[in-house]
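Design request, C-alpha cells follow.
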C-alpha cells in the first residue's frame, strides 16, 4: 500500500510532478484550468485532450465531473456546510 500512498501524495501535492502518463496530466491540466479559470477555457483545451487520445465522449465526461464537483462545493460553501470530523481531523487512512 505504500506505493499507492506515495503516488496519491504526489498527486495531492502537485500532480505535475507525479509519475503520470501524458493523457492523465492533460486531463488534470484541463480539470485544474476549468476549476480555477473557467473563463479562459477554449477549443484549444478540448483539442489538447483529443490529441492525448480522449474521445469527445470522454472530454464531455471529464467536463461534467469537474463541473459537478464545482457545483457541489459551491452549494456546500453557500450553505455553510462543515467538513465531517473525519476530514477535519486530517486522518489519512485510505
Amino acid at each position: 500500500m505504500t506505493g499507492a500512498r506515495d503516488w496519491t501524495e504526489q498527486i495531492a501535492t502537485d500532480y505535475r510532478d507525479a509519475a503520470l502518463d501524458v493523457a492523465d496530466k492533460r486531463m488534470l491540466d484541463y480539470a485544474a484550468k476549468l476549476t480555477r479559470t473557467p473563463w479562459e477555457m477554449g477549443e484549444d483545451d478540448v483539442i489538447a485532450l483529443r490529441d492525448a487520445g480522449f474521445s469527445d465522449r470522454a472530454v464531455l465526461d471529464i467536463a461534467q465531473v469537474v463541473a459537478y464537483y464545482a457545483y457541489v462545493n459551491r452549494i456546500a460553501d453557500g450553505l455553510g456546510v462543515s467538513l465531517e470530523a473525519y476530514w477535519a481531523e486530517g486522518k489519512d487512512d485510505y
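Comment from the thread starter after seeing the answer: thanks! The helical segments are 2-14, 22-36, 43-51, 56-78, 85-88.
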